[in-house]
Amino acid sequence: MVRIEFQSAISLYLIFTTIILLWLWLFKEKDEALRSSLKKGMQYIWECGICSYIYVDSIHKIISECPRCKSFNKREQGK
Fold first, then answer.
1. Dihedral in degrees, nearest 10, Cα atoms 69, 71, 75, 79
2. 75: left (phi over 0), alpha (psi -120 to 50) or beta
3. pLDDT confidence bin for 11, thresholds 50/70/90
4. Where are the beta strands (DSSP E) in the chain?
5. Which residues sit opposite 54 in a β-bridge?
6. DSSP at 60
7. What is the pTM of this model?
8. How far apart are CA 58 and CA 64, in angstroms?
């Protein structure tokens, strides 16, 4: 049987608990950063209502011109 002092046991418990909490916090932050970057990138993706062409336009926010058929597309309010 391994003998360990009470102070050492408390110290090990606190160290391991802190490491686990830091690891969970970093994992959560990384997940939130990934989700926000994906959400931010989706605002630049447009789908043409005429030819169904999907394209990226990072300049325009409300109305964009399709590069394939040159028709104008308006951003829906929900997107």
1. -20
2. beta
3. very high
4. 45-47, 54-56, 63-65, 72-74
5. 47
6. -
7. 0.47
8. 10
pLDDT value of residue 23: 96
Residue 41 burial class via C-beta count within 10 angstroms: exposed 0-12, middle 13-18, buried 19 and up: exposed
| 50 contacts 64 by C-beta, under 8 angstroms | no
Give the β-pairing of 72-74 and 63-65.
antiparallel
Kindly state the helix (H) or strand (E) to which residue 22 belongs, with its residue range: helix 6-42
CA 71-72-74 angle, 5° bins: 145
Mean per-residue pLDDT of the chain: 86
Task: Write the pLDDT tens digit of every residue in 35-64.
Answer: 877 776 667 788 898 998 989 887 777 889
CB 46 within 8 A of CB 25: no
Q: What whole-number distance in Å separates Cα of residue 17 and Cα of residue 9?
A: 12
